[in-house]
Amino acid sequence: MSRSHMLYDNKPLESIPVTPVRWEKRWEPEKLFRLQRIGGVIIEGTLHGRLRFSVTDPFSGPQKLRYVVLHIEISKALKRKFESSGKEIEPNYGMDKKVSTGYLMSSYKTSATGDSDKINANEAKRMTTVAELSRLTENRLAERGHATQAFWCEEKDIEKMELLQGDHIRLKTKGEGPFIEFIVKLDDDSATATNYTGGEGAGSSWTDKVMSFKGQPQDAPQEEGDGADDDEWDD
């Protein structure tokens, strides 16, 4: 079995049991995942588990919608930032600058450059929790503390990714729910991305599509302003 078809452990994604869900109302992803609302978070964390769901409802006939749920332990989080027009801009990473405190050139204090868009794990969970979805996952995922959250994506967007248990990943959610718009695996020695979801398939460069990382030329523009050098995440 090719490792390119594996997710989380040494089993192919197809071998993970599918939990059937009969949704009694109309299954409306735009509303349920709150995708219409402008917002979202950028998360770094560790992959600990996964689930598969097949959703049907009384209004869609035999159609089945398949989802993968990733259980992520959050280590870093940022709020996505948007202009009034809806265009995404670079968030404030909360970097400090030195400010002189007196006549002596050696007298300094550190001062924040502005309101930081960094958030803690609890705030990230609050911003991405939808109670109806949590009820589907809360008894099926191992408890790993307050820093873990279940994030959803369509199975077709992630089935070709190579993600293994313990992998360090970065993802972006869309709207005000847990739906993944982009996800990548980060290399141990750099922040180079290997795969992402979002309609262009596995193997595309996250650096090209979403964020800027170390090793990119300094004069290279950041796309949509949401790039973060790893140092900018540090407290």
UniProtKB/TrEMBL annotation:
Biological processes per GO annotation: negative regulation of actin nucleation
Could you say which protein family the record assigns here?
Belongs to the Arpin family.
The region called Disordered is annotated at 194-235
Highest rank taxon of the organism: Eukaryota
* Compositionally biased residues, Acidic residues: 221-235
> Per the record, a Pfam family?
UPF0552
What is the name attached to this protein's record? Answer: Arpin
